[in-house]
Amino acid sequence: MVSGGVTKFAKAHPAMDFRLMCKKAFDLAKAEVPNLTNSMIDGTRVSYFSDHFSRQLKAASMVQDYLGLNPLGSVRIEWGGATGGECFQAAYEAVASGRMDCCLAVGYETMSRVPTWKGNEFIALASDTNFDFPLGGFYTGYYALMVNRHIHEYIRRKKFADVKDEREAQRKAVEYGTRVMAKVSVKNHRNALYNPYAQYPKNLSVDDVLRSEMVSYPLTREQICTMSDGAAAVFLCSEERAKELVDKPVRVTGVGCGTDTMRLADRPFGKVLLMPHEKESDYADLRYPGVHSFRAGRSAGIEAYRHAGIENPTKELDFIELHDAYSSSEIQTYEDLGLCRYGEGYDFVEQGDPFLPGMDYGFPVPKAGTIPVNPSGGLIACGHPVGATGLMQAVFALWQLEGSIGKHFGSDRLQIPHAKRGLIHSHAGTGSSVTVSILEAGR
Asked: What does each C-alpha distance from 186 to 159, 173, 176, 203, 204 come to in angstroms?
């Protein structure tokens, strides 16, 4: 990877259509490498989630046209919430296969063109329209169901086993779990105070998060990402071409993807897919994956780690940009990616492992900096223009590994010192498809 660009994510960009947003991100990426000319670009991968939001079929061709890249080959990518992450990997594969020496990955979404209720309906069409969708399921409802089960499995049974009344035990467990989830929201919103591209930087407290509007119990408004307008772009090149353009290109050293059933009710039970640092006895009594874990994320992580030669991600990664559509799913994904064992995600937060050191979050974070997660603010604070989101993560990871966060954000506050290796993670549906990519600083 030699460069990247991103627009500010916003509730709406009324002055820009999708083509202009992509052009803004493209121009920023090109400005980073002055010697990169259009004649060096061999093709494109263009991502957007929904034709409905664009009100334009074949919009990728219009992006290609607007960027002045005809008659090069181009492919439109769509994979639900993981659309941007899959676009990144599609561009990587175009280069790694030898088909191209330089591939542009560019993605966008214009979600402000419809009312929120209509947007939620469009997004819910990425569930099973023969079963889940007709039952009235919007994604916040699905994720509320999943985290309630996650809390039951890992907090109710662990911390409140001595409470005999089942309803009271679950109430106490949810109360505990939601306070921990609120800390994730506080982390991401406060990190975003130093990210000028973020949609919702906020100086929130845990109580602010818990007092915000209840959307689907126990998820409140401040724990949920929002619909956004925005675009992002990255250039991926062969090693030879990359070294013509920059001194130390960031390398893609691992990619992985995973899938699961669209219908939650179809998720089977079986053995946990093990990371190299885990053993089967760790999970002897765990019914996996159930509706409380994302098997696709575990599968994607294992493949990417194997590709990159990573055996223990907490010790071998310097940061992660993770698809936190909900504060609950961030905690669930800690476990899926092997940052902690299944059942330890809430303790991982309480210990402070995924927090940035030296930041005031309003509560103790004793192990801050172990493995910072979403130093940019993540989806909860940055926004989620679906086709651009995974590429936004790639751009922010690129800047971390270049050590250029200060240049792009106007402050070094979010720069991970001496970052050598990072992970980006894209997630779709109720975990029906996930991508994980490993990036390493150039040498």
From this structure: 24, 20, 16, 7, 6
